[in-house]
Amino acid sequence: MIFNERLKLLRTEAGMTQEQAAEAVGCPLRSYHRLEKDGSKTHYDTLMKIAEYYGVSVDWLMGRTDNREVNR
């Protein structure tokens, strides 16, 4: 699944641990582990927080585009 791969990529590019990333987006660590491991479904609010925190589009996170930019 693309989502978990891209989530891990963003975290490693930022030089963060899973614990730091989970705290930054307000997600329990156990849930964050599952997101990176198998791309578990997440709530819309968490998805938006992840995209906003890393400055990428939700479409990019979900694999719908290869363009990271947020269209505003």
Question: What does this protein structure show overall?
Answer:
With 72 residues, the protein is mainly alpha-helical. The protein contains five helices and no strands. It has a single domain, classed as lambda repressor-like DNA-binding domains (434 Repressor (Amino-terminal Domain), Orthogonal Bundle), CATH 1.10.260. The protein has helices at 2-13, 18-25, 29-38, 44-54, 58-61. Helix 1 crosses helix 3 and helix 2 (18-25) packs across helix 3 (29-38).
Number of separate domains: 1
How would you sum up the global shape? globular
CATH superfamily heading: lambda repressor-like DNA-binding domains
DSSP helix fraction: 55-70%
Termini separation: 27 Å
Can you tell me the CATH architecture?
A: Orthogonal Bundle
Please count the helical segments: 5
Spans of at least 5 consecutive residues with low confidence? none
SSE topology string: HHHHH
Fraction in beta strands: under 5%
CATH class: Mainly Alpha
> In angstroms, what is the radius of gyration?
11 Å
Mean pLDDT: 92
Provide a short characterization of the protein structure:
62% of the residues lie in helices and 0% in strands. With 72 residues, the protein is mainly alpha-helical. α2 packs across α3.
Sequence-ordered SSE layout with sheet pairings:
Blueprint: H1 2-13, H2 18-25, H3 29-38, H4 44-54, H5 58-61
Write a concise keyword list for the protein shown above.
5 helices, 434 Repressor (Amino-terminal Domain), 72 residues, globular, mainly alpha
